[in-house]
# Entry
Amino acid sequence: MNIILLGPPGAGKGTQARRLVEERGMTQLSTGDMLREARSSGTEMGKRVAAVMDRGELVTDEIVIGLIAEKLEGGGGGFIFDGFPRTLAQADALGALLDNMGQRLDAVIEMRVDDEALVARITARSTCAGCGEVYNDISRPIPADGTCVKCGATEFTRRADDNADSLRQRLMEYYKKTSPLIGYYHAKGQLSVVDGLGEIDAVSAEIKAALDKA
Ligand code: AMP
# Structure
């Protein structure tokens, strides 16, 4: 089963993708994670996209489609596309890539949340440096002993683009360039909407119900 998690920054796509990996053995493909990895390993491409990411703008379709194509080359299935596609051109490219592999997209889950909740979530967000587990100062704080519940690491990072200015731009990009994908996948009969504002377990249950129907 191949699925897309669609939603604005802070909707909880990464958290839910990680759950699907654990529970169903699916493979998470996050273009945001791939780009951050390219940045931290200092590749030419990583250097080129760093400033764009920090401003909260989208990097070019060519770069992200290339990253996804590379991952799909190895074959397999059971992909969760997290943060990709973000434009109609990316959606078309993904359709073509899956077609070429003889695979299909089974479901697109839109995680719906309101903007105010996003600002609160994103500015309180931190990530385990060891395993990428996501924490939130308010709803899911780092344990009092300062160790990650998943891997025991003691270092946590905040994303450079998780600040108010970047977030405003990321939301603008979402509404201008990504939200048209809601209509696109709805028209194809592939869209399910879940309430992204609920507790993590409740959102997971809604996603499970949507996937069972797909
Ligand atoms: P994310 O971790 O998904 O929030 O992505 C972080 C940043 O990486 C975004 O704000 C963009 O600058 C860039 N990015 C990630 N995925 C894409 C994509 N599919 N298309 C364009 N830019 C992307």
Remarks:
- The chain has nine helices and eight strands.
- The pocket of adenosine monophosphate is lined by residues 9, 31-32, 35, 52-53, 56-59, 64, 83-84, 86, 90, 161, 170 (CB under 6 Å).
- The longest helix spans residues 164-178.
